[in-house]
Amino acid sequence: GAVVSQHPSRVICKSGTSVKIECRSLDFQATTMFWYRQFPKQSLMLMATSNEGSKATYEQGVEKDKFLINHASLTLSTLTVTSAHPEDSSFYICSARAATFYYEQYFGPGTRLTVT
Amino acid sequence: AQSVTQPDIHITVSEGASLELRCNYSYGATPYLFWYVQSPGQGLQLLLKYFSGDTLVQGIKGFEAEFKRSQSSFNLRKPSVHWSDAAEYFCAVGVYDMRFGAGTRLTVKP
After folding, report:
1. In Å, how far are A32, A33, A48, A55, B56 from A83, measured between CA atoms?
2. pLDDT, tens digit (0-9, with 9 covering 90-100), for B5-48
3. Contacts of B96 in chain A (CB under 8 A)
4. Is A8 on the interface with B (CB under 8 A)?
């Protein structure tokens, strides 16, 4: 149980275009979802927290107009990288937390974004 | 603010040797502590977690960790390392939002 999927696993896009990454909780309802970014050989940095039906809360330094997060249902959150640039290339990982297990996050497998 | 420190960036051990990865945390209340493992290009796999109770926690793949409040530590141990344990290990703390340490890369020598 407690499986989180991400789609796509890898994406390559051209500079200036937008790309959407989906995060789904497959067997539980996720009241809260988190988006992390990981640079090569570095730790995970929390980008934003989203609660179902509410606006996302972004960490300091994260551009909310560039990284659009939508948590429209209890099983789906999306991260859209708008007007992508090569410096947005990174590994993006989502996690989800269920209402019944509020102290634990379940992580997706990650999405590798490369902007050319 | 909560934070996690993993003092060792890279550790190399021989296969069959014991392993200890260090983790120190800063947290205002009783911490919720986690250890995750990440293979290259992969997501995170939870090894074990501590919320309360017995301070020695058993996890998957033969790992264990001990919570020591007096030392603000949550070190990960394994008595005998296998080549497949080579990976990046992250310690994390948090309840409503999780903060990760910088990670420790484990190399296993044959």
Report:
1. 26, 23, 19, 21, 48
2. 999 999 999 999 999 999 999 887 778 999 999 988 888 999 99
3. 102
4. no
Please classify residue B106 by burial: count the beta carbons closer than 10 Å to its beta carbon, then call 0-12 exposed, 13-18 middle and 19+ buried. Answer: buried
By the CB < 8 Å criterion, does B97 face chain A?
yes
- Residues A107, B51: C-beta atoms closer than 8 Å: no
Q: What tens digit of pLDDT does each residue of A22-55 get?
A: 999 998 998 899 999 998 888 899 999 998 888 8
From the list B46, B51, B101, the residue facing A43 with the nearest CB is B101
- A41-45 long-range contacts (CB < 8 A, ≥24 apart) are A41/B105, A42/B102, A42/B103, A43/B90, A43/B100, A43/B101, A43/B102, A43/B103, A44/A93, A44/B44, A44/B90, A44/B100
